[in-house]
Amino acid sequence: MTSPGRIARALAVFGVDEVVVYDDMAGAPAAPPPEDPHAGKNKRQQDGRRQQGFNPKSQHSHDAESSLTVDVDPCHFLTHLLSYLEAPPFMRKALFPIHPNLRLAGLLPTMDMPHHPNPIDTPIAYREGVTVEGMPPSGKGTLVDIGTKGHVAVDDEIPPKTRVTLHLPQGDHGPAEAVNPAAPREEGGFYWGYNVRKASALSAVFEECPHEGGYDVSIGTSDRGETVAKVFPDQRRPLKFKHMLVVFGGPKGIEFAASNDPKLAAMGVYGSGTSELFDHWLNILPGQGSRVVRTDEAMYIGLSGLRRLWDSN
């Protein structure tokens, strides 16, 4: 349980907006995942409420898996825990049913991100909430639990147990408005947690990118790459980009994932040719003293070394 916690902490500490967990054994035969009976309903709800504060981070199909998945589907296990840790603690019980994957969740570290309520912090104008049963005093709209003693009301009609993003310009006890989940970051300038995406293969990381136009800067990490200092010699000049992708490999590296990806294999991309997938191919720790750098270790090392590329972006 320690690695998922360290990965989540790295995402929070460095302000990462999206994490993609990809399968580096995509070519191996596997049983199809169990069907989520709520998938169609969730998709319709998401399409209808995206502009009124509905936060897609609240959509989890993890309850479709009823048993521990750490061995049979490690990607599912990791995305489950990362999603759980990203959610504010007060709403986890409502959004995450009891599941074997979460049996030791109490041992995981706290994230303490800006959207996780903390009574000693200076109040900010945005909150994450989860809708609850009941009717506001006005007789219309929806009650939302924001982790304080009382609930707030929004005008929108939203089903219970739905995560929403709220704007409260007058504080926790003033009027609340459901807003786009990106508003705290884009309008308020706050880091507001990360989205979790599961990719079936390395190629799917790129193909299923949710951003229009894809990732405009992509970086792959490998002990066969160039040093950061050589590729980015100007320490004072941040890169200009909208969406940067930094890919870390498993114990056998990104090359192993590419070799097991049928789509990349058909394109002739494998082994040393894996670097062709990326704009930059970096060795984040030249002269490493251990044969293998764990993924959670590589994330701290890599994000520390690369942070200057986006600090002023």
Q: Can you describe this structure?
A:
Residues 35-50 have a biased composition (Basic and acidic residues). This is Deoxyribose-phosphate aldolase. Belongs to the class IV-like SAM-binding methyltransferase superfamily. It comes from Plectosphaerella cucumerina. The chain is of the alpha/beta class and 313 residues long. The chain is built from ten helices and ten strands. The longest helix is centred in the N-terminal third of the chain and has 13 residues, at 74-86. It is globular, with a radius of gyration of 21 Å. Residues 33-50 have low confidence and may be disordered.
Attribute tags:
Deoxyribose-phosphate aldolase, 10 strands, 5-stranded antiparallel β-sheet, NA-bd_OB-fold, tRNA_m1G_MTases_N, 313 residues, Put_MeTrfase-C9orf114-like
Low-confidence stretches: 33-50
| Largest sheet features | 5 strands, antiparallel
Anisotropy-based shape: globular
Helix content: 10-25%
Q: How does the helix and strand content classify structurally?
A: alpha/beta
How much beta, percentage-wise? 15-25%
The number of distinct helices, counting runs of at least 4 residues, comes to 10
The helix/strand order is HEHHHEEEEEHEHEHEHHEH
Rounded mean pLDDT is 88
Secondary structure: number of strands: 10
Widest beta sheet: strand line-up = 4-3-2-5-6
Alpha-carbon Rg, integer: 21 Å
C-alpha termini separation: 34 Å
